[in-house]
Amino acid sequence: MTEINMDKELRNGIKISAKEILNSKYIIASTGAGISTESGIPDFRGPGGAWRSIGGLIKMVVKTPTAKPNPGHYALAELEKIGILKCLITQNIDNLHRAAGSRNVIEFHGNMYKLRCTKCNTRFGIFDFGAMRAHRSRCKGIVKPDTVMFGEPIPPDALQNAFDEAERCDCLIVAGTSSVVYPAAALIPRAKRNNARIIEVNAEETGMTRSVSDHFLKGKTGEILPSLVDEIKRLKEVK
Ligand code: NAD
Question: Which residues are named in the active-site annotation (predicted)?
């Protein structure tokens, strides 16, 4: 059991959210830069965000290759392992969800350790030269870094799969994102169309907190997500 000094309101919110999750049939999660700040990678718009200073931007570039997953990443990986979380959609490029053990991950903005063919969407590890040579012999597409740059379209397979998952889910956990970057932010209205329940975990209120979220768990993802998973496991045992 994760021992964290949480106030009563947050503890109640976690209990209610855990029940909500266990009463749902198809649960997915969507994460953003905020889930990786506790791994030392600055987000963009949070209080220590990279957009707020030149130092922040430099830190983001330097820190990302050495960063390790934090308890928030591990909690979501565990939720998948125990069969509850069906899919994880992330805007992050840092590979930390996979490093924590998450398997069914859609990387909306790509992965910094991969390259991608723009014609057939095949992905390669950045040093997987053998696979790249074999690919070149059968496809004439251009191979580029998988990461999506400003103004570049989202890889069509990631976009379609993410939208399909959002439309299928009946519960969406949104963690560590300001939900302002489109088309990632469009996952939420798509999920809402089917009356999916929205559980938001964030350090601060966002544009969706009061208008869209059914539950808002305010605080660090590295503390709240492990407590949420502990509570889900506890309730599963007593069922
Ligand atoms: P954002 O910076 O716009 O928003 C991050 C949100 O997370 C903020 O609301 C902030 O208050 C919250 N937050 C910060 N630390 C938190 C914590 N420990 N616990 C809970 N909440 C926390 O991020 P975004 O919405 O993901 O949009 C930024 C874009 O930039 C994304 O599209 C992403 O691709 C890219 N980006 C990626 C990385 C990465 O790969 N780690 C880092 C920075 C930016």
Answer: 109
Q: What number of H helices and E strands is found in the chain?
A: 8, 9
Is 109 annotated in the active site?
A: yes
In this structure, the number of other CB atoms found within 10 A of the CB of residue 5 comes to: 5
Mutate to test the pocket of ligand 1, among 30, 31, 43 (most ligand atoms within 8 A of CB): 43
Best CA proximity match to 225, nearest among 9, 6, 14, 25:
14
In this prediction, residue 33 carries a pLDDT of 95
Q: Is 178's pLDDT higher than 70?
A: yes
CB atoms inside a 10 Å sphere around CB 65: 10
Helix axes 8-22, 221-238, angle to 10 degrees: 50
What tens digit of pLDDT does each residue of 35-72 get?
A: 999 999 988 877 666 666 667 667 677 778 889 999 99
Mean pLDDT across 120-139: 90
Task: For residue 171, say whether it is annotated as part of any ligand binding site.
Answer: no
Residues 219 and 203: beta-carbon distance below 8 Å: yes
Consecutive H or E run containing 201: strand 197-202
Q: Is the CB of 203 under 6 A from ligand 1?
A: yes
Q: Does residue 139 have a known ligand-binding role?
A: yes
* Distance separating alpha carbons of residues 137 and 216, to the nearest angstrom: 51
CATH fold of 8-40+69-110+154-238 = Rossmann fold (3.40.50)
pTM of this prediction?
Answer: 0.92
Q: How many CA atoms lie within 13 A of 239 on its CB side?
A: 11
